[in-house]
Amino acid sequence: MTYERIVAGATAVGLKVDSGVVVGAEKRVSYGGYIVSRVGKKVFKIGNRMAIAAAGLIGDMQTLHKILSAEIMYRELVTSSKMSVRSAAKLLSAILYSYKLMPFISEIIFAGYDEGGYHLYVLDPVGSVIEDDYAAVGTGAPIAIGIIETEYRKDLELEKAMDLTIKAIRSAISRDAVSGDGIDVIAISKDGIIEKSIVL
């Protein structure tokens, strides 16, 4: 199995709209052609205003979530101020880059809300970071991004953005063998976080 095949497993999607930001991912955990679990969680909250969705190895996703959550909590405690989403994305980028010789096998969509508004970033396993309005990563990304680009508008209501995220992932599931079994979605707005889980 090639490095590229491992790093791209699964499907994760993110959308930024005027009323908030949404991330989602399907629940199947696979290794090559084998399904390890049908209830994997690939979407993680960070505090009450940030979240990540990931594709790749489930252990690496979980470890990155724990490291990043701890680092953000520590820095906010020391400085007595809230970390901006951009600073948190740069911190995650630095963490990923510091492991470049033995990288985390995971592609990340990082989203959040701060005084500057809503933000969505895409990061690769060695820390490249790009801000965008929408993104899809993983083996189902080519299918999911086609759905998003057909229907995405910046002025979508947050509920509609969640529906579009689910539709894009559902479409990827129908064509990608290593994606499936359900969808987890997190929506972030100035009012807080909404979580939704769908079993297929």
TrEMBL record:
One BP term from GO: proteasomal protein catabolic process
Endpoints of the signal sequence: none
Substrates-to-products reaction catalysed: Cleavage of peptide bonds with very broad specificity
Keywords from the UniProt entry: Autocatalytic cleavage, Cytoplasm, Hydrolase, Protease, Proteasome, Threonine protease, Zymogen
Enzyme Commission identifier(s): 3.4.25.1
Family: Belongs to the peptidase T1B family.
Protein name: Proteasome subunit beta
